[in-house]
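> example.struct
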């Protein structure tokens, strides 16, 4: 949670810097970060979830050598993926930015920023993998220390290069990407040193980077469902941005700001759900189903309390929050309405994230993915289109569809968890199994 809190500090500082550049610049960067860059991040998170689940199970079984080999293969996959992303950014930045149908005034800022962000994606992908590898082994302190150092450098870099301090050129929007690259670049150096010097719970060696096709397939088998699941979620965001754009620049800007602010809540709370995933994976690796259930129930209490607190804050103080980032009264009014419905989604996410990550920690990736895909493609997006374009609700129809989709996903995922089928793999553990209570 502290690691994510450092990320939230960066997000809020970054948003404050962007607000000083202007509405078009701010919206352009947010659109890139919440769409194309988010697709890259979600795909990388899919790899992280699969890797973390396998490492946690290996650690639970006491097979540290296997955990280290899994980590090495995940790093190789991550580097290959980052290279493809960088090439795509250099060749396809313009059409990729246009996917969200942004306002014409956004292109001059969004396209150059997107090129830089994708070309420098190695840092984003590696740092996620670094946290997942050590987290799967039960070490969340080291990623925290690296994140604090990384965020400090990124904020300083953005301040210097966005506004031209200390004799540096004022790069504006491009300075955001430069600042991120500085922080992530140093983070990579520290992360590599930690993993390969044996100062963490896992000690990587060069032999672990030798391609092992069978192990890569094993990682891929658990990684592609969550990657697709989260990528589809971002495609939903793209669809909502396009629909928001049909109501004008202010609606699209307000939605973009709301997205950025709305991301802060799960950033703070998601680590609790991920802790459940690690504990569930390790418990099943040891054949202890009862302990896995206890981790889930404890996670629901703690995670729910925090998410509901944020939901209450978002509900009662949404206008004051938006006042801090924009002085446009129409943008504030529209964004306030969005945060009203988002606060309801936060209430539901208190359950959903724990349900989802616990299933993923148990290696049950396919069914949650199918639930998300069906909910997004056949419920959320169609409902948003119908309510916003073919009823008198207008843009409010978008927010209603967003909340309704959160409800459907939460209920469906909860039913899957309650079925207990995810516990069946514990029987295959060398440690045996503990009866399902």
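> example.seq
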């Amino acid at each position: 949670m502290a690691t994510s809190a450092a990320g939230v500090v960066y997000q809020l500082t970054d948003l404050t810097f962007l607000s000083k550049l202007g509405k078009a610049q701010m919206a352009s960067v947010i659109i890139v970060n919440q769409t194309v860059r988010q697709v890259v991040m979600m795909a990388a998170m899919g790899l992280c979830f699969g890797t973390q689940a396998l490492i946690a199970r290996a650690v639970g079984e006491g097979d540290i050598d296997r955990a280290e080999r899994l980590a090495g293969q995940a790093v190789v996959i991550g580097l290959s993926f980052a290279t493809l992303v960088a090439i795509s950014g250099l060749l396809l930045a313009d059409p990729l930015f246009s996917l969200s149908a942004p306002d014409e005034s956004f292109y001059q800022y969004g396209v150059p920023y997107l090129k830089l962000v994708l070309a420098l994606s190695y840092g984003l992908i590696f740092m996620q993998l670094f946290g997942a590898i050590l987290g799967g082994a039960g070490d969340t302190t080291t990623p925290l220390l690296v994140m604090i150092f990384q965020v400090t450098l990124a904020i300083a870099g953005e301040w210097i290069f966005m506004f031209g301090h200390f004799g540096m050129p004022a790069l504006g929007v491009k300075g955001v990407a430069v600042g991120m690259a500085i922080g992530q670049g140093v983070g990579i150096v520290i992360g590599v040193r930690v993993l390969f010097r044996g100062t963490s719970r896992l000690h990587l060696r060069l032999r672990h980077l030798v391609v092992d096709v069978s192990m890569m397939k094993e990682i891929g088998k658990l990684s592609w469902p969550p990657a697709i699941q989260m990528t589809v979620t971002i495609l939903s965001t793209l669809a909502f941005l396009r629909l928001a754009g049909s109501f004008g620049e202010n609606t699209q800007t307000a939605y973009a700001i709301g997205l950025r602010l709305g991301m802060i809540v799960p950033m703070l709370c998601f680590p609790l759900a991920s802790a459940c995933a690690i504990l569930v994976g390790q418990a099943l690796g040891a054949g202890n189903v009862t302990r896995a259930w206890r981790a889930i129930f404890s996670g629901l209490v703690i995670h729910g309390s925090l998410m509901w607190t944020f939901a209450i804050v978002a509900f009662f103080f949404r206008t004051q929050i938006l006042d801090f980032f924009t002085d446009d009264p129409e943008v504030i009014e529209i964004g306030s309405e969005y945060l009203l419905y988002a606060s309801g989604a936060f209430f539901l996410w208190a359950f959903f994230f724990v349900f989802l990550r616990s299933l993923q920690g148990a290696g049950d990736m396919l069914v949650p993915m199918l639930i998300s895909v069906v909910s997004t493609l056949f419920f959320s997006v169609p409902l948003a289109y119908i309510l916003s374009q073919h009823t008198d609700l207008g843009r409010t129809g978008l927010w209603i569809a967003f909340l309704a989709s959160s409800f459907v996903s939460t209920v469906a995922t909860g039913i899957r968890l309650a079925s207990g089928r995810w516990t069946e793999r514990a029987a295959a553990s060398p440690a045996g199994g503990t009866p399902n209570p």
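> remarks
The radius of gyration is 21 Å.
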